[in-house]
C-alpha cells in the first residue's frame, strides 16, 4: 500500500495510507489531508489512484505544486518522489514492484518510435527483448525497499543513473552505450540512438 509522509521543517507531521481512489490536499478542513497554512490553497492538489498507479494533479493552486522541485500540472508518482506544496513537503512511498513498472513502461521492439533518443533493453525475464524508451526526464525502476534505479536525462544529452541500495548506499554514474544495470532480478542494457546509426533493439 502506498503512503504519504507529510513534513514541515524536516519534521514528520503525519503518515497517511493511500486507501481510497481520491485524496484531496489543501487548507480546507474537509480535505483528506489538511495543510493549515496560508501558502496552501483551499483545495490545492488531488491524488487519484488508477489501478496500481497514483497520479498527482494540481488544482489551479495559487503557489503551484512541485515534484522533485519541478512545477507540475499532472504527474505519475514514483516511490521516493518529494511533493512540494507551500511550506510542506510530502514524501510518496510505494511498494510497487518492478513487474508492475515493466508492464506499464515496456514496449515490444516493433512498436518502437524512431524518435526515441535512448532506451533500455530488457535482457532476461518474462519481458526479455522488450524495450523501455527513455523519452522523459526521469525513469524510475524498483523501489527504495528492494533497491531503486533512477535514470535522468541531462541538458547535454547524457543519461545519469542514480542507484539507491537497500542499505541506503548511493551511487551515481553517466551511462555509456552497452552499459548494463540490474534491478531486482532483471538485467537491462542501455542503448543510445546517436551512438550507432544502425542501433535498434533486436526482436525478442
Automatic annotation (TrEMBL):
Pfam family for this entry, one: FHA
Residues covered by the FHA domain: 23-72
Top-level taxonomic group: Bacteria
Descriptive protein name: FHA domain-containing protein
Organism (species): Thiothrix fructosivorans
